[in-house]
Each structure stands twice: as C-alpha cells, then as structure tokens.
Amino acid sequence: MGGADEPAGPARTAATRDPDGTQRAILAAATHEFAANGLSGARVDAIAARAGINKRMLYHYFGNKEALYRAALEAEYARIRAAEAELRLDDLEPEASLARLAAFTFDYYLENPDFLSLLATENLHRARHVASSDRLKAMHVAFIGDLDRVLARGAAAGLFRPGLDAVDIYVTIASLGAFYLSNRWTLGAIFGRDLAEPARLAAWRVHIAEVVLAFARA
What we know:
Number of helices: 12
Order of helices and strands: HHHHHHHHHHHH
Structural class: mainly alpha
Number of strands: 0
Radius of gyration: 20 Å
Distance between the termini: 72 Å
C-alpha cells in the first residue's frame, strides 16, 4: 500500500503518463498557493493536493519549494509575454500600438489577479528570484525590443518624441494599471468611489492609453 501522502493509483499513473500535464498542474496549483499565501506561507502539501499528486512527485519535478516558486514566476511571466506577442504591435500604427498595449495590460491584470499577487510577493523579496532567472531576463529583452520598435516608428513618422525609453513607457503603463487594481479597495473606501464598477474600470483603461499617448506625442 502507498503512503498517506500519495494519491490514488489512477492519479499517480496519469502523472507518470503525462509529465508535461503534471508539471502544468503543479505550476497552476503553486501559482494559486503562492499568490494566496506568499512564499513563506505557502504549503507544499496544499500544492500537491491541489495538483492531484504526492509531494514526492512534486519534488521530483521541481526540487524544493523555492525552486517551484521561481518556476511559477517564470511561467506567469511567460504567459503574459506570450499574450503580448499575440497583439502583433508591429502590424499597427504606432499610436494604435501603444493604445492596444495599454488596454491589454490593464485587462490582463484585471483578469489575472494571481499575477499581481505574485509580483507583490516577489517585491517583498526584492526580486531575488527574478534576478536569478536567466529565462526571465531573456523574455523581457525580447518584449522591450518589440516596444522599442513601435516607439522608433512613431518617432520616424513625427508622431512621437525622439528618444523615448521603452522601459519607461512600459513601467508607466504597468504602474497605472497595477496600482489602480491592487489598491482599488482602499482607494474606493477613502474617496467614496466604487473603483471596481465596470464603468470606472472601462474609463480607467482609456485613461491609461490617453496618459501614455499624451506623454509620447511629439
């Protein structure tokens, strides 16, 4: 008979037959657990139970909790970078590209609250795990290169000011979206506004694009 921490035979067999699917299930469970409880508060047995495997299988794939946390961060960043690539910003006029990126970023944060929670956790750790990941650095270099081309096209067409920094533009977009969503409950309570109301969310999405475009325009 198996140990108390092992799943039933069919679940264990499924994990053996589909290692890629098992890793995806572990990462999804880990993302949820780390987003809810942070790195120190997350429990490996809770992750394993949610993924439908035993802890030994989890350790087989990811080694330890810290390595699993780093893998979850990498997977979440890979998801948003892949989704950004689907925007095909090079196919649009520069101003439309910036507006699309701004709207997408806000919507992505809104629809993926675990991503923002993971970022908050990692910032508490002063980006120690992000800084140690070559994979993360590589995927961000590619994304910033895409955005830099948009800004260069805009400057060449006389639409944008020359010399705009792609990192600064992205930080502006990300900040306006993440701060609003991460603090909408406290800001709403302080100012007496329902910042989670659909109409306000839609208005803020437009506001982000307008702010970024106003700054970028020549």
